Each structure stands twice: as C-alpha cells, then as structure tokens.
Amino acid sequence: MLASLGDSLFAHRDVISLNFDDTLQRALRCTRARRVETDDSPHERTGEVTAWRRGERTVRIWQMHGSVRRPRSIVLGTSVYGRAAAKLVDGFASAKDAERRWLRQNPGDGQWTPAHHARWQHARRAPHAMLAQRGLGVMDLFASADLAFLGTSLEVSEVDVWWALHQRARNHARLPPEQRPATFVLRGDATKTHLATGPANVTLVALPQWSECWDALLAPA
User: How far, in Å, CA of 85 to CA of 92, rounded?
Assistant: First the structure.
C-alpha cells in the first residue's frame, strides 16, 4: 500500500501536505527513493520540506504546517496560522523577485504568454532550484502552479492557507480566465458550503466516491 502511494507521488513535482506525520516520506522510502539534501528556503521557514529522487524523477514534499520529526516546526491553531501567514509574505516577495529576474534574463515579446509561463515554471521548479540562494519556496507554488487539494476541509481558520490562496487569486487577476492556473478541491461529497461559492477562484469538484478523488490525483507515474 505504501509503495503504491510512493510510486504515485512521482507523478508530481511538488506535493504540499497539511499533515504533521511522515506517511508520505515512508511511502517514498518503500520505493527505494533517496532523500536529497536541499536548502529549504529558511527565509520562509513555516514547516518542513524534503526532496526525494528515484532515477530521473524528483518529488518535493512540503509540510506547510510542520512535522512530528521537528515539533517546534508545527503550525496549529488560529493565532499560529496567522503568524505563519506573516512569514509567507516574505516567500511571496521572493517568488515575484525571482520571476522579475528571470524575465530580465529571458525577454520575450513584452507579454506574459502561456508559453513564457511554461518556460518560467520549468526553470523555477527544476529539481536543483532549491539549491540556489533565495531558492524555491511554497509560495512559488501558490503564486503560479496548478493546485489540486485532496483530503483537506480547507477550514476558514487556516489563515495561512487562505492568505496564500487569495494572494494567488490577486496575482492572476489580470490574466484571462483561461490562462489562470487551476485551483481544484477534490471531495467525495459537497458538504463544505464555504467552498461552494468558489472563494479565491477555488473550484469544488465533488465526486461520488473518495476513491475516485484519489484516482484523479494519483495518476500512474
């Protein structure tokens, strides 16, 4: 079971977990993946991040709310979520600064086209990106990557997550809807009414069974 999960994780370049446990890391070890030492963006240290490699594939696990392996990293409770959101401000500034530097070095036709965006995403989220000064942070993902949430209620008390989502929406406000990165919440029901109105451009996808949600997210690697 864990090995199957670990195999599926390699279908993704980055996985954000809001849990504290090490299930995902244990799953990756079951696939004989090895942990890669990284500079985990200390300017934005609100949790834990580990990178794992197997062959030519690399996946990063971002534990946005910390890890049981480092109890002091754990983010829990409304007031602590608020302090975590304040740290994400620096992460967003770093992400936008990196974007501006890349645009200066890779001038296009003056427009941020989908092709330009794809090249930027590939460069910023490359496996070695975290080794650079002011490297990749979780706010890079909220700023411009497609996001799919599964297994989280996204309660409004999670101030840091919602700040990141609203900042993401503001960051894309000038783009036509068809060019904005997608933000999906996959659920096995539609009971979370606070998501029904699509806050921060979130799209709620209610599927008949939770297994279908997992199948949609964990495609074969």
Answer: 10
DSSP for 89-136 reads HHHHHHHHHHHHHHHHHS--SSS--HHHHHHHHHHHTSTTGGGSTT--
Predicted TM-score of the model (pTM): 0.86
Judge contact between 211 and 2, C-beta under 8 A. Answer: no
Distance of alpha carbon 98 from alpha carbon 101, whole angstroms: 5
Ramachandran sector of residue 66 (left: φ over 0; alpha: ψ -120 to 50; beta: rest): left
Amino acid identity, position 193: T
Distances from the Cα of 14 to the Cα of 41, 174, 192, angstroms: 15, 26, 26
Residue 196 pLDDT exceeds 70:
yes
